[in-house]
Write a structure and sequence with these properties.
Elements lengths: L1 H13 L4 H11 L2 E6 L6 E10 L2 E8 H6 L1 E8 L9 E7 L2 E6 L6 E7 L3 E13 H9 L3 E6 L5 E5 L5 H8 L12 H8 L3 H14 L3
Antiparallel strand pairs: 1-2, 2-3, 3-4, 4-8, 5-6, 5-9, 7-8, 9-10
Keywords: Signal
Protein name: Lipoprotein
Organism: Oceanisphaera pacifica
Length: 212
């Protein structure tokens, strides 16, 4: 999915579109915030959707009760039609420190989520409960990597922190990747503005600014 961001940035620049057009398009697709409250009991909630690390995607959610317990509900999955593994199938690597989390779900949920106004993508996911302090650590880390185990014994992984130009070009040359020629630092900077780690940072800001 990071490749898609780079390609969108590259194609918009080739078409002569203004930076603000590209930025607005990408912000409508990735790291989409929402919030509200229950009319029933006044419970408040915050959510960050379409948080993408390559083929791994997250949705972060916290409400009044979870905030009181210092917890965040994380929907974690893939942008492909796959079944997620059981047990400790979600793994974070934050500046070299490893964390693994259990899912309580037996069955993988298969949804379709909107990416902007015209694009819908699959989202195969399970639910994980993550301590709020780890979400904050991920948001502030230098290197944020994720690995997700699949039910068939394989795994997918992604880089959630911003990439350098050299790292982006290295991804571009890997087999099976769609190649956007002449990727520049400007394209990478545009993609990094809506990196998954920025989504985590924005979610932390939402937690801190919400009067629970």
């Amino acid at each position: 999915m990071y490749k898609l961001i780079l390609v969108v940035s590259f194609l918009f620049s080739m078409a002569g579109c203004a930076f603000t057009d590209t930025e607005a398009l990408l912000q409508s697709m990735y790291n989409v915030p929402s919030s509200g409250s229950s009319k029933f009991d006044g419970t408040k909630y915050i959510r960050m959707s379409n948080v993408v690390c390559n083929s791994v995607m997250f949705e972060l959610y916290q409400d009044t009760k979870k905030a009181e317990r210092g917890l965040v509900l994380l929907e974690s999955g893939t942008t492909e039609i796959e079944n997620i593994g059981d047990g400790k199938s979600l793994h974070f690597k934050l500046d070299g420190e490893l964390y693994s989390y259990n899912t309580g779900d037996v069955v993988t949920e298969h949804d379709t989520v909107p990416m902007g106004q015209r694009l819908n993508i699959p989202f195969s996911h399970k639910t994980y409960i993550i301590p709020e302090k780890v979400i904050r650590q991920a948001a502030g880390s230098e290197e944020f990597l994720v690995k997700l185990d699949l039910a068939n014994g394989t795994f997918i992984e992604g880089t959630c922190s911003p990439l350098t130009l050299a790292q982006a070009k290295d991804q571009d040359t890997k087999p099976g990747n769609y190649s956007a020629p002449n990727i520049t630092q400007e394209h990478v900077d545009t993609a990094n503005r809506i990196s998954a780690q920025n989504g985590f940072r924005e979610f932390v800001e939402m937690m801190d600014s919400t009067a629970w």
